[in-house]
Amino acid sequence: MSPSSPANRPNPGSARGGDWPKVRLHVVSGKGGTGKTTVAAALALALASGGRRVLLMEVEGRQGIAQLFDTPPLPYEERLVAVAPDGGEVFALAVDPEAALLEYLEMFYNMRRAGSALRKLGAIDFATTIAPGVRDVLLTGKAIEAVKRGERAGKPAYDAIVMDAPPTGRIARFLNVSSEVAGLAKVGPIKSQSDSVMAVIRSPRTAVHLVTLLEEMPVQETLDGIQELHESRLPVGAVIVNMMRGPRLTPDGVAAALDGTLDFDEVKAGVEAARLPRKLNTTTVSKVLMAEAAEHAQRIELERIERERLDTTDQPIYELPEMSGGIDLGALYAMSRMLRDQGAV
Amino acid sequence: MPEPQMLPALPEGTPVLDIDALIDDPGVRVIVCCGSGGVGKTTTAASLGIRAAERGRKVCVMTIDPARRLAQSMGLTELDNTPRAVNDVDTSNGGSLDAMMLDMKRTFDEIVEAQSDPERAQQILDNPFYQALSSSFAGTQEYMAMEKLGQLRAAAEATDTWNLIIVDTPPSRSALDFLDAPKRLGSFLDGRLMKLLSAPARGAGRFGAKVMSAGMSMVTGTLTKLIGAQVLKDLQTFVASFDALFGGFRQRAEATYAQLQAPDTRFLVVAAPERDALREASYFVERLAGENMPLAGLILNRVQEVPLPQLTAETAVAAADRLDEANEHPLTAGMLRLHADRVQNGQRQRRLAQRFSAAHPHVPAAAAPALAGDVHDLDGLREVAAALATQA
Q1: How far is it, in rounded angstroms, from Cα B4 to Cα B164?
Q2: For residue A25, what is the domain's CATH number?
């Protein structure tokens, strides 16, 4: 199903509040394993709240969005995957570079037939896999097309586009399409296409958000990524810290657990007062709880150190907790609420 | 008082992956660690490397993208594509440990340089298409990892420097990229388009134009329209020189791929107990079986340990609630909630692992517990390897 006329939406395409009022294209990147697809989906839901329409797109052919929303694999077609609180809609699209290229050839050159001949020869494969930058121009180009769609008529098809983008290590090169194709095309359609894509990506209408965990490698990659984006003059958005451990102990408790000064008798008195089932030995329980608290404190301390490293950047930082029940639709809604509460939208 | 019991890390009935038997087996000379990004492949490769070395193997570990501090601890301060000895490894059993970081562009450049005269090599290295291919083509890193493995294997056989090579695979989102990249790169470079593009530049001259069929001229016409005549010429020059250099790139890629089927090679699929990582692991297990590549087993990294599972999450939360209501023992209440989180998370992970093992009941597995801190020194690596090995 494609998005219909946006008649019942409040101010189509209008800016939202929050930290990114002007942004229409939210690019979400992050190191592998940090939950970037999940965060992109939660951000899309957050942006859709209040009756807005958002397109969530993926570009790596992994069908991560379909798996997340528990729907069949997405075709190259915009489909409704979730309804946001108070009536917003999230559409999803898995961009396939081949299909995007054929669409592009048809749209601009009316060359559908040439397209199939090119495919037979392996030229499509060439263009979408090895020709420097062409694949990325096609993928980012599709996002920009969605941003601009309907704009001229004053009725943008989507209020925001959220892209589940390649990982942090590749993101600057992925978005910096102009310089990527520079070696390939100095004039001609690819060059002008990449220039028009670049104009939107470099503008305040785009923000690149980086998802991280509070662990050494993801934080380092995030810091490197921010620097690289700055150097490429790409607009850096927020840092989103995912899967944070909930602070279950007071700061004093964490400090005591960390330096091994937790009072066993005090813990045990608590365990006794908690009236656990009788089959549980209170000494054993107390010992286990103390050991767990010590490990937790170590992890919290590590997170604190990594968090301090992140604080050296000027970007807004949002925090999302570890979802101990795993990620389902309910968890996505909860995460989208937390992003809203922290000013992401 | 008896030790508190632990929730088992792996589902009941999972065959045990005997790590020491694997790394001690003189018939095993290559171990490939694969899996999706962020699951701890590098840590696994490095920890198996140090354990194997300290048990007497002469080991070379090739890593792709190690964490900075882990790299430093192994003496990998620069990305120079050459294996170097790792210090502070116990060599009393006659083993040794070398480690290297892969530099994919350099590996590619070296192939070019090794196979042609300096002038021609430079021509290729300067071509924009070569530069794109060698630095950004999705799959080059995977392919170069395989090339490098081939080189290390040849060096090991020639000089007896190593008798076990452990490789980490590139941090691709999809574990399967690693298997597909060599073929894709090979079939592309050796494909019809490349042949077509290289035809005019091969010096067919006036004849070339005549024999070009209508279909072909339409294609070159389209390409010219899309990318411009100069670019097409660059491309043709690149293809021609590259073609001459490699003869059949496809053959080379196939040979590279075939070395993964060698009888002395074993695959370890690495996963974290998370949905996506286990799904990738599942695909990989099926794919390896389909390609006749020997799977040693699954390494399940960062499994949450759950001591005292008899204190269930529900009981712990209810007890914490009682303490909070009575407004006493906030420390113990916090700790009880902490335990509840841990039990819940641990059970979720075990459900996911259960699903994997139901689908692949014959795949042996070994688990490593989630550690409170990052692994960034040799002792940390030893600890991980010991945890993996003690399950046998």
Answers
A1: 39
A2: 3.40.50.300
